[in-house]
Amino acid sequence: MSKIIDLKRRNFLKGSAAAAAAASVASTSAFAGSYDDAKNLKQQKEEDIKNAKYTPVVCGMCVNMCGVIAREVDGKITKIDPNPLHTKSRGFMCARGNAGIAEEYDPDRLTKPLKRVGPKGSGKFVEISWEQALDEISQKMVKILEEERDNRSTFVFGAGASTGNMGDPVFANFLNGVGSANFIDHFTTCFAPSFMANLMTFGSWGLSDFQHTKYVMNLGANRAEGIVTPDTLDMFRKTHGRGIEKIVYIDPRYTNTASHCDEFIAIKPGTDAALILAMINETIKNGYHKTPYKAQYIEENVNGIKELEEFFTTGEGATYTPEWAAKITDIPAETIKRLTKEFSDAAEKYEGAANCYRSRKSTWYYQDFEFRRAQAIFNAIHGCVNRPGGVTLGTHLKGKNGKGLESYEYEDFPIYDNAKGRIDTGVIANGEYPLANPTKGSWQILRDNILEINTKWNKAGRPRPDEDGNYKGLAENEYPVRGFFIYKQNPMQSVPEYDKTAEMLKSVDLVVTIDIIANDTAYYSDYILPDNTYL
Ligand code: SF4
Predict the structure, then answer these.
(1) Among candidate residues 391, 419, 454, the one where a domain is terminated
(2) How confident is the model at residue 25 (pLDDT cuts 50, 70, 90)?
(3) Minimum CA distance residue for ligand 1 atom 8
(4) What's the CA gap between 55 and 69, in Å, rounded?
(5) How many domains is the chain partitioned into structurally?
(6) Fewer CB within 10 Å: N-end or C-end of the chain?
(7) Predicted ipTM beyond 0.95
(8) Mutate to test the pocket of ligand 1, among 93, 232, 234 (most ligand atoms within 8 A of CB)
(9) Residue nearest ligand 1's atom 6 by CA
(10) What is the DSSP string of 102-149?
């Protein structure tokens, strides 16, 4: 029997403490070196830089995919630099990107497939060969499919958002190859309400074009602390003496982001929707959407403007005045009126180059979807959607020959007769969650449904499906989930109520995680497969 590897957290901590102690000794002795030592080291470095191999790669430390250049000396990556020629990042690289080397050479990095030998969650694994791992996993899959009468949806696939070598599309191909309907990514633990609100208002999520915008109204997106990306710097470019006329930041707390902005306005937590509704009310009441540029924009691009005007003049929206919002948000009515006028003037003057910023983040409040929809409408009636400097919906890149660039080719997979609908938003939910994305689903509903159905199924003695695919003891269309493949995702940390997530993973017969370093979810897996880094 191979050596048992104990992935328990305290072992990680012990390891980290020892590493920290060693680092502190090393740094003390480094200071003790002579001037000649330092000079030699410098010469050696210069020599290394001259002889190094430089490879442009796409950073895989988050979803932004900045262009970076890896420096390699004697087969070892020694530094990562930003790539000034990369179209998206344009010479930007953040601290996470800089730390990419640490992931590559992390002593806790997975190097061999691991197989669980203790109870799920105990962290006890043994190393096995790739051959053994793949053989055992596929044998278990075949057995499960035989028992489930070929219901492919008994396997669920979860993937992080394009943060690695397989990314969404290739992992989705694996899912398609198996034939399951159940694919889940980080969507509902990230920007689902904002995405769906924009999708249902103007058909796309789009990006905020901070490179060309002139006025930003940022509602609580703490970009200087939460996530620094190329567009964070674009948003703050006024700070560096360029471009943007004004950034207004509205948040309950004076954050680091607030310090980069021209005006900070404190708002009572959870009341952003009321603020935007009052701004739409103020816009309609004063006819700010009827100025020359906007009138033409609305004529050409906006449906339902009459209904919106009616709602805000004679309908319920007529009561959403700045005075009404002032009582809810703690922002004075005069400030709400001034901000609306400022935004309106900038949008007119710069023909849509203004941005009521939608941000990315998980849900803040229970009415988040409505808040984001109000923002989408506000941007649209000021002519800021699909305009440079506004919310841009994007176009297909053209290659040098004028034709579109080739997109990723999905394999043509057969449709399996017995695969069932999604376990979260499909047949099981019966339309209970109409706003959930039909292809990306919801982590929480998925987790809760699997746990509930698997528990019932286990209590009923794990019945096999009849010829129609129905199970004794389960409702029509319900089925057990017996396999879960998780690629670079950590639902134990990212989905609320981790006890439930642990129970759900325990209730699934075959859990396989694929990652670079074993995370909390890996503890609850039957097999852990190591992945490459982007370096
Ligand atoms: S934002 Fe930072 S971590 Fe993300 S891709 Fe760019 S450099 Fe990498």
Answers:
(1) 391
(2) very low
(3) 97
(4) 5
(5) 2
(6) N
(7) yes
(8) 93
(9) 66
(10) HHHT-TTB--S-EEE-SSTTS-EEEE--HHHHHHHHHHHHHHHHHHTT
Query: 469 and 374 in one domain?
Result: no
Centroid of ligand 1 to alpha carbon of 59 (angstroms):
6
For the Cβ of 94 lying below 6 angstroms from any atom of ligand 1, the answer is: yes
Question: Averaged over 73-91, what is the pLDDT?
Answer: 91
Residue 235 shares a structural domain with residue 364: yes
Rounded to 5°, the CA angle 263-330-190 comes to 70
Q: Which atom of ligand 1 is nearest to the CA of 58?
A: 5
Do 430 and 488 lie in one domain? The reply is yes
| Residues 333 and 430 grouped into a single domain | no
Q: What angle do CA 249, 251, 257 make, to 5 degrees?
A: 55
Atom number in ligand 1 closest to CA 68: 7
Q: Is 64 a pocket residue for ligand 1 (Cβ < 6 Å)?
A: yes
Specify the CATH number for the domain of residue 169.
Answer: 3.40.50.740
Distance 495 CA to ligand 1 centre (A): 23
- Which residues constitute the domain of residue 358? 207-391
Provide the pLDDT confidence category of residue 396 given band limits of 50, 70 and 90.
Answer: low
Average pLDDT (454-480) is: 92
